[in-house]
Design brief:
Strand order of the largest sheet: 1-2-3
Number of strands: 3
Structural class: alpha+beta
Shape: globular
Helix content: 25-40%
Largest sheet: 3 strands, antiparallel
Order of helices and strands: EEHEHH
Distance between the termini: 32 Å
Radius of gyration: 13 Å
Number of domains: 1
Number of helices: 3
Amino acid sequence: MINVAYAISEEKYTFGEECRTSYGIVAYSNVDQDGTKTIIASVRDITSDRDALARLVSDCNRLKLSTVHLNDVVEDFLSE
């Protein structure tokens, strides 16, 4: 069984003089087994609200979300 750990990713976008920070979710596999971080799924550029995304990532980890459902969870998050 693959153990998944979710984390927040951060990207900065620059459009002319305007700079924007956006956050996404990254899923790592088997971090607790060997300490390496292998990205197995990710969704970029979800929101600029880091705190809201941190709550979602916490729920994903607490509920041991399968990466199969990650896109659905993000879609639900965006429709709230």
